[in-house]
Amino acid sequence: MKIETLAIHSGNIIDSNTKAAIQPITLSTTFERGENGDYSGGYMYSRSNNPNRKSLENVVAALENGIEACAFATGNAAGMSVFQALEPGSHIICPDDMYHGLRNQLKLIFKGILSFDFVDFTDLEQIFKVIKRETKLIWAETPSNPLLKLSDIAQIAHIAKEHQLIFVVDNTFASPCCQQPLSLGADMVMHSTTKYLNGHSDVTGGILVTKEITPFWEKVKLVQGYGGAVPAPFDCYLVTRGIKTLPYRMRGHVANAQALAKFLENHEAVEAVFYPGLTSHPQHELAKKQMLSFGGMLSFLLKGGEEKAKQVVNGLKIFTQATSLGGVESLIEHRYSVEGPDTKTPKNLLRVSVGLEHIDDLIGDLERVL
Ligand SMILES: *Cc1c(COP(=O)(O)O)cnc(C)c1O
Questions:
Q1: Closest residue (by CA) to atom 4 of ligand 1?
Q2: Which residue lies with its CA nearest to atom 15 of ligand 1?
Q3: Closest CA to 97 of 63, 39, 30, 142
Q4: How many domains does the chain have?
Q5: Are 225 and 331 in a shared domain?
Q6: How far away, in angstroms, is 353 Cα from ligand 1 center?
Q7: For residue 141, pLDDT beyond 80
C-alpha cells in the first residue's frame, strides 16, 4: 500500500465488541486475566503496553518501512532510550549541529557514562577520523537544524556497516513522506512526534522504528518498559489521528516552503536562504537523491544583522514567534537566542516552520515587514 493508505488504515483497530469504526481510547491501566491466568486480550498493564500505543507504533513502523516501533512521551525520551541501551563506556558519533536538546542531554546526563564526538557530517572524512574501538553508534540528523545541512544517509550507512556500528537517523525535520532512512540503509529512525507526525502543536511524543529485531532493539524495548517514559493513551490517540492527514499536510508544507524560499531568495533584504529544494543549496543534488520531497523547514539570513532579524520577527502578524515546528500554523524563530552562547547559529538567522496558510498571505506578511 502507498503511504496515504497506510497513514489512514495501519493504526486503526476496529473494536470487536462495539464495532466502533474509530478505535476508542483505552484508559484502563490494567487488563483482566483469564481463568488460567493468561492475558487473552494481549495486554497486562499500561506501562508495558496499551492498545492506543500499539496502534501508534504500528502506523509509524508502516510509514517508515520498518518492522517494529517503540513510542515514548517525548522525542528526547526516545533519543535517551537509545543512549541508555548502550553499554557504559560506549562511544557515539553525532553531528556538530545535532538538535540542541539531545546534544545537551548527552553532555549533561551521559557525561562520564558514554563518550561522544560532535563532527561535521557534511564531510564523511570527519566521521572516519573519530571511529575508535569503543564506537558503537552513529547518530545523524538530516536536514539539520537550523542550517538545513544534509548528511548522506546511504554513505554513512555504508561506513556504519563496515565498522559494525548501529546507525540511527533523527527524521523529525523531513517526516517519512519526504525521506525514508531505513530504505537508504539506516538501522533505526527516530521522530519527535510532537512535530509533523502529530502536526497540530498539541501533543509531545517521540518514537523509534527499527528495520530488524536485534539484541540492541530488544534492549531499547526494555528501556521503554522499565524506564517507563511512555506516552499516555490520549496522546497516542491524538498522534494516530494526526498521522491520517500527514501525507496531505506534507504536500502543503513542501509547496508553501518551496514558494516562500523562492520569494525570500529574490528579496533584497535577505542575505541567504537555506532550503534543500533550492538549486542554490550546496547539497541540492544530494537532496534530490535521498529525499522524496524537500520538507517544510527553511531558514534565512537578513542583511542588517540581529537587530533587523528581531524587527522582522516582531512585525509579523500571521507567523507566530515561537519555537517548535511541524504544526499547521507557521512559526518563526530567532534561533540564536534559544540555543544559548555555545551555538554556531548566526545572529541574523530566522528559522521558519512553514505552515498550511495560503501562500499569498504568508508572502504578503513577510513582504510587508522586510
Ligand atoms: C523537537 C525535536 C527533538 C526532541 O523532541 P521533543 O518531543 O521536544 O522531546 C529531537 N530532534 C529534533 C530534530 C527535533 O526537532
A1: 75
A2: 172
A3: 142
A4: 2
A5: no
A6: 14
A7: yes
Instruction: Check whether residue 227 and residue 252 sit in a common domain.
Output: no
Q: What is the CATH number of the domain that holds 324?
A: 3.90.1150.10
Mutate which of 173, 179, 192, 339 for ligand 1? The one with the most ligand atoms within 8 Å of its CB, which is 192
Model confidence at 99: pLDDT above 90: yes
pTM above 0.70, yes or no: yes
CATH number at residue 28: 3.40.640.10
Number of residues written out for the chain = 370
| Statement to judge: residues 214 and 256 lie in one domain | no
What's the pLDDT score for residue 344?
A: 83
Same domain, 131 and 236: yes
Which residues, 6+ apart, have CB-to-CB distance to 285 below 8 Å?
none
361 is an active site residue? no
pLDDT tens figures, 157-192: 999 999 999 999 999 999 999 999 999 999 999 999
Q: Are residues 229 and 256 in the same domain?
A: no
Distance from C-alpha of 326 to C-alpha of 193, rounded to nearest angstrom: 9
Residue closest by Cα to atom 7 of ligand 1: 75
What range does the domain containing 56 cover? 3-243
Condensed to tens digits (0 to 9), the pLDDT of residues 143-164 reads: 999 999 999 999 999 999 999 9
pLDDT at 340: 73
Given 97, 152, 170, 187, which residue is catalytic? 170
Digit-coded pLDDT (tens) for 281-318? 999 999 999 999 999 999 999 999 999 999 999 999 99
Of 243, 272, 307, the one marking the end of a domain is 243
| 224-273: pLDDT as tens digits | 999 999 999 999 999 999 999 999 999 999 999 999 999 999 999 999 99
Residue type, 363: I
> Is 47 in the active site?
yes
* Domain boundary pick from 205, 226, 243: 243
Statement to judge: residues 164 and 25 lie in one domain: yes
> Ligand 1 pocket: which of 100, 102, 208 to mutate (most atoms <8 Å of CB)?
102
Distances (CA, A) of 116 to 5, 88, 235: 40, 12, 33
Protein residue with least CA distance to atom 1, ligand 1: 192
| CB neighbourhood size of 280 (10 A) | 11
